[in-house]
Write a structure and sequence with these properties.
The chain has helices at about 10-25, 55-60, 85-110, 150-165, 190-195, 215-225, 245-255, 265-285, 290-295, 305-310, 320-330, and strands spanning about 5, 25-30, 45-50, 70, 115-120, 170-175, 175-180, 205, 210-215, 235, 240, 260. The chain is α/β, with parallel strands linked by helices. About 45% of the residues are buried.
């Protein structure tokens, strides 16, 4: 039985990848920090290896008896770009998401790992200037990467391509906007559902995005081990929706009323600017509405045919994705209604 080393195994996507790998019959070794919250992995029949992604020795030791690696570990934060931004936190994003990826790939190559699957982001996809949908052939420009996290994932993907050319079989999975269970932090998308269910969303900035069940994203990673072509990238998504239609769908699944007030983008950016300033400089907490997330609220529609046809990625109905996320939030105390 082949064994997969999964970095970031306790995260939203990572915890679902662990379950997908077990479902497909793989042994799993989760690479996590000793201080990690293991709630999402509780009770699973897996092995643990401890260390920081920047610790080359710990990574090397962890991958010794593994056949494959799914590198889903990353620092996922929207960091301010203004004068109150913490330079150490910004550097940490690149240290983990780019430079640690370089070290992991080198280690994997030297130890004869059969294949590495890298979790990228739909942010690394460029959008056609004519307003049509994006696909794997398009790479984001610097102007399309408004924040450090998005830039770091794009650069991390370039590292993956470099090592593939050196002889290490790699391919990349680019999740769109996943929804579903085990969203512990929660992610920005999960916060949308949580705030909606808690009655804290009076309005919205309308945009277009691609929604997918996180379990499908996870299975795409595992299927890429056998079906993914080295050097290729696969957009793991499902359906393109306007944000307004997404809220209507959430409302319909939850039996609630969707907000109708569209917030002008300039107003949303202004609110986000002051929210960041107050949170970072006065409260010393994470902002509820990061300016980077508002800046990212643009047209992001994708053609996911390649992942469906080549990887055989499943396409779960989005109503189930929403229901699964709502139920998980309710069962774990994030919301008071389901």
């Amino acid at each position: 039985m082949s064994k997969i080393l999964i970095t970031g195994a306790n995260g939203f996507i990572g915890a679902n990848i662990v379950r997908a790998a077990l479902k497909k019959g793989y042994k799993v070794k989760a690479f996590i920090r000793k201080t990690s919250d293991l709630q999402a992995l509780d009770g699973l029949p897996i092995e643990f290896a401890y260390g920081d992604l920047r610790d080359t020795d710990a990574l090397g030791t962890a991958m010794k008896d593994c056949d494959f690696i799914i590198h889903a570990g990353a620092i996922y934060i929207f960091s301010p770009k203004w004068f109150w931004a913490d330079p150490k936190k910004i550097q940490a994003i690149y240290d983990v998401n780019v430079y640690a990826t370089e070290k992991l790939m080198k280690n994997a190559f030297e130890k004869g790992i059969k294949k590495v699957i890298f979790t990228s982001s739909e942010s690394a996809i460029g959008m056609p200037p004519n307003g049509s949908i994006g696909d794997e052939t398009l790479f984001a420009t610097k102007q399309e990467l408004p924040g450090h996290y998005k830039r770091s994932k794009y650069l991390g993907e370039l590292v993956t391509f470099k090592w593939n050319k050196k002889g290490l079989p790699t391919c990349t999975i680019l999740p769109t906007t996943p929804m579903g269970p085990y969203d512990i932090k929660p992610t920005p998308t999960g916060r949308i559902v949580m705030d909606f269910m808690n009655g804290k969303m009076p309005g919205f900035v309308d945009t277009t995005l691609n929604i997918v069940h996180v379990k499908d994203v996870a299975m795409a990673h595992v299927l890429a081990i056998e079906n993914g072509q080295p050097g290729e990238r696969y957009i793991a998504g499902n359906k393109n929706l306007t944000f307004k239609d997404l809220l209507r769908l959430i409302a319909d699944v939850a039996g609630m009323k969707a907000p109708n007030f569209t917030v002008p983008k300039i107003l949303a950016k202004t609110f986000a600017f002051f929210d960041e300033f107050i949170s970072c400089k006065i409260k010393h907490t994470a902002p509820k509405t990061p300016l980077e997330s508002v800046a990212s609220a643009t047209y992001r529609a994708f053609d996911c045919t390649k992942a469906w046809s080549e990887l055989k990625m499943p396409k779960t109905n989005l109503r189930k994705a929403i229901r699964d996320q709502i139920d998980w939030f309710y069962e774990n105390g994030y919301t008071k209604r389901r």
